[in-house]
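Here is one chain, start to finish.
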Amino acid sequence: MEGNSFRNSTQGGPSTTSRSGLPRTRSPVKLILCLSSWILASSCMSTAAQIDRVDGDNIMRHVEQIIGFGPHPPGSDAQRKVGDYLVERLESYGLEVSTQDFSPMTPLGRREMRNIWAVSEGTTESVIILASHYDSKYFEDFSFLGANDSGSSTALVLEFARVLAGDNPTRHTLWFVFFDGEEAFLEWTSADSLYGSREFVKMLKARRWLRQIDALILLDMVGDKDLALRKDVNSTTWLNTLIWDTAYQMGNDEIFRTRGSTGAQDDHIPFAQEGIPVVDIIDLDYAHWHRQGDTLDKLSVDNLKIVGNVVLSSLPAISQYLGEHR
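Its structure:
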């Protein structure tokens, strides 16, 4: 893979432990059959094909704004400006916004970082997180803007916040989380990567909030013109199945591929290690990954809308499934 990041770890990364109440020894085939039957029987899915709430122009404007600040690795002035932009947009939607400042040691010394999240209240304190990282990877030898990695997913989570701020279709409280410091500064290791998500989980544990987190839906590199999303082996089986089945019902199986898999080391891993159901929606076959060519012209408005509408369509069923199996 291009660059020094090893998020595509084939089949050997950490496995995910689910808190869904399903026995860990259950056969994956039986689990998929049971879940597929549950989805077909769920009234939440009856309107999935009708949901079209994502504004592609909004998403592209967000990407333009984000990359307009230039390369924005953690600790840079440009990254601070990107974070300020996220806070301003989230507050404009009427959401309560919180930040978490931290200064981890990196191979290049200490760097100031900031996680950002906003909250749309549900009828329960149980939380579903919709997340992306918002930093771009550090390169010394060329200017890396990261329109797809991570502009596309950052912009899409911002659009989720707008759509869901006053119209939460679930019983769950929704958090829109933007992690800083996902990228490695030098070479991807357990220490030089995932700074923001690791720190966020530490904060959740320290405040005894971790028990409130029912699921994490992570997005990363979701906007390229040749988008091909495959199920991540480090994600929770029932979440993969539910989202991909929703995409199939909506006629989007050319993007949400049913064949093949990927293995992502990404911001969902610290949550999975705590037993939280997770899913990472990511295209690791992006030709311009960690290259100078990751620019706005490589993105597809239509593909961004498809991914967004599939996730929005899945949320009621995810919430219902968690309520029945937690």
